[in-house]
Design brief:
Chain A is mainly α. Helices cover about 80% and strands about 0% of the residues of chain A. Chain B has ten helices and ten strands. Classes of the chains: A mainly alpha, B alpha/beta.
């Protein structure tokens, strides 16, 4: 049992390390990925904050949406991560990994961790941009540590979800279609760019079961309000959701090769 | 002592009512090079997938070096190597990293990994390209690296699904040079599928020919010739004979063979 657990940990680490090495060989993707959140903040955020259409008591609108845009950026990276499973299946790489003595869940955790690392790189870029355009955030050691945890968990959850979707749809084309269909509703049915209170009541229900909302809540508490009374609840919800989705994902993804 | 390293008994696989593999049984002997032949869609890849624990059979079972590949896949995975038909190295990693990934997934102790990778790289004569990204490699180099990945842990059986498909003759020869050396050095049993009959004839000690989900025949070339009652038949003749494609058109084999022999003499 102990040996099995150490196998899971060491092999998740190998998987994640190789993904990071790929990024280091060709980091252009990180830069291109950063364009979207910068546009959201620099264009959408600036314009909306002038309109003053959305009540964000105590904070400027730009402050309010920065944690939301960070969440969006991380989850969008993660949700297309499942595509790599289909990609690797088409290459034959996945088959080769599956026939090694590697616990199934190690591949899932490896992908989750590497999606998290990509997410962290987005956080760095967004924070630098926020500092540049003078969006005031609480950037302390504690808040950054908290941000690190929430990004890793959130990226993990959406990576797991996307691997499950990939193992059901099985082809790149279908996945791209479904990926588009899920990401925007997830984003809009959350408190990323407006408070839950201004949503119609049915949408509030959706927002409350949307894991993205818990990510935004956690990040907002750390980076803006400093009121961390709810933080442990957000982290527990995310941890449980991520853990269970990783189990389901480990069960599902080997089916993609059949 | 049992000399069979692969034992397959009544292996069957059905997909939604379609029987891809139909009660197949055969054995492969320790250390032999076994060619697995058959037209496209005959069920070759499906059988390989079941042997390497990628796919569960509908019924039937078997063993690889004594380990049941249906009930004990974890043990089987430790002692086999697999080179898929598709290009299965990661182009965005270097040759060294691709090998390192497999070395770690196969639990090669950390002290030995570097040495083992160096040995494989020199065995495959890829020294100059150790730290190049694999996407810059030629087809032959990629195949060699894939074989390297599959033999790092010194498997007892190496499965290769059409290892030389799409390679030019020189690269093909080179791949086989390394496979033969591997068998010579470590006594690795080599199980491969191919469409190149000449390759199968030259390299393998025994062949199995599949047709429509069943094994049409297993044996050495002389044994196949005896069954066909044709002393000089090539493996290609045997393939056509046992898969039945031309056989139904009466007497074409002899003509085909004659034409081919003429060609050979001229060539």
């Amino acid at each position: 049992m102990l040996e099995y657990i150490s196998q899971i940990i060491s092999k998740s680490y190998v998987m994640a390390e190789m993904e990071v090495r790929k990024l280091l060989h060709d980091p252009t993707e990180l830069i291109t990925r950063a364009v979207q959140p910068i546009l959201w903040l620099g264009v959408f955020g600036e314009a909306m904050s002038r309109a003053r259409a959305i009540p964000t008591p105590g904070f400027t609108y730009l402050q309010f949406i920065t944690p939301g845009i960070l969440t969006q950026s991380v989850t969008f990276i993660a949700i297309f991560y499942g595509l790599s499973i289909i990609w690797e299946r088409d290459m034959g790489l996945l088959q080769k990994i599956i026939v090694t003595p590697t616990p199934r869940i190690a591949l899932v955790w490896g992908k989750m961790i590497s999606a998290g690392i990509r997410g962290l790189s987005q956080a760095i870029i967004i924070f630098l941009f926020a500092i540049t355009i003078q969006i005031h955030l609480k950037l302390t050691v504690f808040s950054l540590l908290g941000v690190f945890f929430i990004i890793m968990l959130g990226a993990g959850f959406f990576t797991g979800l996307s691997m499950i979707i990939a193992s059901i749809v099985k082809t790149r084309e279908r996945f791209m279609g479904i990926g588009q269909v899920i990401t925007l509703p997830l984003f809009f049915a959350s408190n990323a760019i407006y408070p839950i209170e201004i949503m119609p009541s049915w949408l509030q229900v959706v927002a409350k079961i949307n894991p993205l909302t818990y990510m935004v809540n956690g990040l907002r508490a750390l980076l803006l309000t400093g009121n961390i009374s709810q933080l442990s609840f957000d982290i527990v919800v995310l941890s449980i959701a991520t853990f269970f989705i990783s189990l389901l994902s480990a069960y599902m993804y080997p089916k993609v090769v059949i | 002592m049992n000399n069979n390293i692969i034992v397959v008994e009544n292996l069957t696989k059905r997909f939604n009512g379609f029987t891809a593999v139909d009660a197949v049984s055969f054995n492969v002997k320790k250390g032999e090079i076994f060619a697995f032949l058959g037209p496209n869609g005959a069920g070759k890849t499906t059988i390989i997938k079941m042997l390497i624990t990628l796919l569960l059979p509908t019924s039937g079972e078997g063993t690889i070096d004594g380990h049941n590949f249906v009930h004990n896949p974890a043990e089987v995975r430790k002692i086999i190597g697999y080179v898929p038909q598709l290009i299965s190295v990661d182009g965005t990693l270097t040759a060294y990293e691709n090998l390192m990934l497999m070395a770690r997934l196969y639990d090669i102790p950390s002290k030995e990994r570097h040495q083992r990778i160096k040995e494989i790289i020199s065995f495959l004569q890829l020294e100059k390209h150790t730290h190049s990204l694999v996407r810059t490699f030629s087809g032959g180099m990629i195949r060699k690296l894939e074989i390297g990945q599959a033999i790092l842990h010194r498997p007892r059986v190496l499965f290769l699904d059409e290892p030389t498909a799409g390679l030019d003759p020189i690269a093909r020869q080179n791949v086989w040079k390394h496979l033969l050396k591997l068998r010579y050095n470590f006594g690795t049993t080599i199980f491969f599928s191919t469409h190149y009959m000449k390759e199968a004839e030259e390299m393998s000690s025994r062949v199995a020919i599949m047709q429509a989900g069943k094994i049409a025949i297993v044996g050495t070339l002389p044994e196949l010739r005896e069954k066909m009652n044709m002393k000089e038949a090539t493996l290609e003749d045997a393939f056509i004979f046992f898969t039945g494609n031309v056989f139904e058109e009466n007497g074409n084999i002899r003509d085909t063979r004659r034409i081919r022999e003429v060609e050979r003499k001229l060539g």
